[in-house]
Here is the input.
Amino acid sequence: MTLANGHPYLAIPGPSVIPDRVQRAMHRGSPNIYEGGLLELVDSLWPDLRMLAGTTGHVAAYIANGHGGWEAANANLFSRGDKALVLACGQFGHSWANSAREMGIEVEVLDFGKASPADPDRLEAALRADTQGRIKAVLTTHVDTATTIRNDIPALRRAIDAAGHSALFAVDCIASMGCDEFRMDDWGVDVTVAASQKGLMTPPGMAFVWFSESARARCGVGDLATPYWRWGPRAEAEEFWQLWDGTAPTTHLYGLREALTMLVHEEGMARVWHRHEVLAGAVWAAFDAWGAGNPAIAMNVGRPEWRGRSVTAARLGAPDATRLRQWCEQRAGVTLGIGLGMAASTDPAYHGFLRVAHMGHVNAHMTLGALAVMEAGLTALGIAHGPGALDAAAKIVATGAGD
Here is the structure.
């Protein structure tokens, strides 16, 4: 017997839930791509994308996913043989490093493990040791989607400045943009990468690279900046087709326009960040309560200030995480995320990890509903857990919602 019939809920860290308004905006025939309404719509996107990232700098859009966003950043930041310093806090830091290596970039990785953020002191020491100034850019994730570690971006910027190094600072915000507070200009970020399918509430298929004037002056002309990835023509297009190096992603653009209206203009970024803060806190409160009755249940990141507000990684002990994910999806219609990068899929330990996403178009009833389903699953499967999780989560929501 199943209770999964009805509208399913996808609580995985991307693609996230797409608002009905965004779907309706996309449900249309192909437009004229040479003149008229589409061109006017696209003109309206750039100021809002800048507001989203907190920058007055440049922005280039690509028909790509997040990996394409990395490649766009790599292609413009570096030439073959240049050196990158990557601060890795999980799967996606290492993946960005691998992307750079495969493009012919020399990569040094500072690995901070799977449960703590990048250490600014280690970054400063590594840059001071680069006496020849070979490191052209420092790359890191704001929130690693796998471990859900959130880096202190302003502290890392201060470390670069303290070292007196000329390296540019590039940040992957694929998991955090539109969920966690991010202020590109105020925090001294030179290059920011994001994609459409998470906090931006639009289907996969678009990547974005924001870049500072300093990055524009120093980059974008090396031997990796091929016609498709070169950011100059996209950010300073003289003709509409140059924005995309060909045909525009028309349907996505209508969806993105609606999503940005919802985020930037109607809710406002401060309220968006607050909503995600509260909903993340509700998830954390539930895990704290469950873990009080079973030490095998715990969040991957111990300190709240180190956790991303868009997704929470947790362990239940193998094989209970996989058992719970399967029960929630098959019996109750809630899909949780796999424990990506915590163990090899061939390792039995893999089945002890999962992730709960609370990114993008989510509200209190979605998050509380997912937690209630998880508690039902823990009970149905006989997985020991502490009491009071739903009460604790509800209190966080009640407090965060205000009067």
